[in-house]
Amino acid sequence: MAGSPERFDIVVIGAGPVGLSFAASLAQSRLKVAVIEQQPLERLANPAFDGREIALTHASVRILRELGVWDAIPASDKSPLQGARVLNGSSPFALCFDSPGGSREPLGFLVPNCRIRDALFKIIRLQDDVQLLCGHSVVGVKNSETGAVITLSDGRQLTARLLVAADSRLSATRGLLGIGADINRVGSSMLICRVRHERAHHQIAVEWFDHHQTIAMLPLMEGVSSLLVTLRSSEADRLLAFDDDSFLVELTKRCRGRLGKMTLASTRHAYPLVTTWAHRFWAPSAALIGDAAIGMHPVTAHGFNIGLSGQKQLAHKIMTTCRDRHDIADPDMLQRYESRLRLSAAPLYHATNILVGLYSGEHPAARLARHAGLRLAQYLPFVRHGISAMLRR
Ligand SMILES: Cc1cc2nc3c(=O)[nH]c(=O)nc-3n(C[C@H](O)[C@H](O)[C@H](O)COP(=O)(O)OP(=O)(O)OC[C@H]3O[C@@H](n4cnc5c(N)ncnc54)[C@H](O)[C@@H]3O)c2cc1C
């Protein structure tokens, strides 16, 4: 182990989209920040396509714009979402979400996760006060009221007044801080790939709850969609092992020709689904952000949106504390951060989990309940408009 520990004001663990956004949000703070990432620098500098197309709300676009990230993403990678349809089984009925009053303002935008990461990385590289330490994972954390000591996999130690964990929904740092979490391994996986297809998508997303599978079709550029198939994990593994031709035949069959003739337009990816809710979002001299605090089920496409808003809240509170020359790890400030995030995220987190339960149940009563639920929502305009408004917020 070399020399005495290097000192930072803030050490962020995890250079995912939320960890990087948080470091970017601190740009004007003059705080000395380190971001630790287990992946090598080359992979962060050239993030590979990972299948995820992130549906961004207008609020998220505003935050990314403030950070200079939105304009750094090529226009060709921003696909407007003009509406959404929710289908149940073989019923022709569709619950529709559209922009109000027939306006052409999109509900949101779809952007590949790798493009968001790429743009954030470029912004961070311009920040003199942020040091990126890549290719190392965190193996030890000691925290107390006076600060945190972080041990890296190469034996190096860093000290921080505030440690911020952004190291994914299975955050090891959360465990090292002694913070428990409700972790639900859903038992299903999401298979994702881009497909080129015959029929036009008109920038309308389709979420289709079918028997033993859920299919989402997310409209990207003309004639191209991202196809997300949620299946039992064993079934997803079976499909993933197919060669491209057999995989495509299987997808076409499962989509029942909704998109017409299809060809594969990307690599395929699988995500075993896990939801998490940390019991606390802070500990002495430490805070959790992003999926390390709240790991949403992707069906409502809100994990990053919540993480982005949460990191902004924490960064804002830290900047205010700094300006007032108070402690940046003040427990009252961290408690306020937790309370606000809980209040804003809990309804969506729980509603999403209820939706997942309702729409993955195969019992005839569950099928009937979701059919009735869709009809009811269609005839309760405030429900549909409420959801559309939430997306456009
Ligand atoms: C299939 C799918 C589709 C999704 N679609 C949407 C969507 O449409 N809209 C939306 O808002 N959200 C969506 N999400 C959620 C979104 O992807 C996550 O909320 C977001 O990636 C969380 O970012 P994060 O930075 O907190 O964590 P992550 O993206 O998980 O990044 C964590 C980082 O920490 C690093 N790390 C982990 N452990 C360590 C360690 N010990 N030391 C150092 N580094 C470490 C990892 O290498 C990684 O770079 C989707 C998720 C999935 C799985």
Classified in CATH, the superfamily of the largest domain is: FAD/NAD(P)-binding domain
Low-confidence sequence ranges:
none
Instruction: Report, as a whole number of angstroms, the end-to-end distance.
Output: 49 Å
CATH architecture of the largest domain: 3-Layer(bba) Sandwich
* Number of contiguous helices: 11
CATH class of the largest domain: Alpha Beta
CATH topology term of the largest domain: FAD/NAD(P)-binding domain
| Count of distinct structural domains | 2
- Provide the list of bound ligands, each named once: flavin-adenine dinucleotide
Q: How large, in whole angstroms, is the Cα Rg?
A: 22 Å
Portion in strands: 25-35%
| Helical content band | 25-40%
> Could you say which overall geometry the principal axes of the C-alpha atoms support?
globular
Question: What structural class results from the helix and strand content?
Answer: alpha+beta
* Structure summary, number of beta strands: 20
Mean pLDDT: 91
Largest sheet composition? 9 strands, mixed
Describe this structure in words.
There is one protein chain. This protein is α+β, with helices and mostly antiparallel strands and 393 residues long. It has two domains: 6-49 and 114-183 and 274-355, FAD/NAD(P)-binding domain (3-Layer(bba) Sandwich); 70-110 and 186-273 and 361-392, D-Amino Acid Oxidase, subunit A, domain 2 (D-Amino Acid Oxidase, Chain A, domain 2), CATH 3.30.9. It is built from eleven helices and 20 strands. The protein has helices at 17-25, 41-45, 58-66, 113-125, 172-176, 233-240, 244-255, 303-323, 331-360, 364-379, 381-392; strands at 6-13, 33-37, 53-56, 79-81, 83-88, 94-98, 108-112, 130-134, 138-144, 147-152, 157-165, 181-197, 204-210, 213-219, 224-232, 262-264, 269-278, 282-283, 286-288, 294-295. The strands form three sheets. Strands 5, 6, 12, 13, 14, 15, 16, 17 and 20 form a nine-stranded mixed β-sheet that branches. Strands 1, 2, 8, 9, 10, 11, 18 and 19 form an eight-stranded mixed β-sheet that branches. A three-stranded antiparallel β-sheet has the order 3-7-4. Strand 10 (147-152) and strand 11 (157-165) form a beta hairpin. Helix 1 packs parallel to helix 4 (113-125), helix 1 packs parallel to helix 8 (303-323) and helix 8 runs antiparallel to helix 9. It is globular. The protein starts with 5 loop residues before the first strand and ends with a helix. The relative contact order is 0.17. The protein binds flavin-adenine dinucleotide. Its cofactor is FAD.
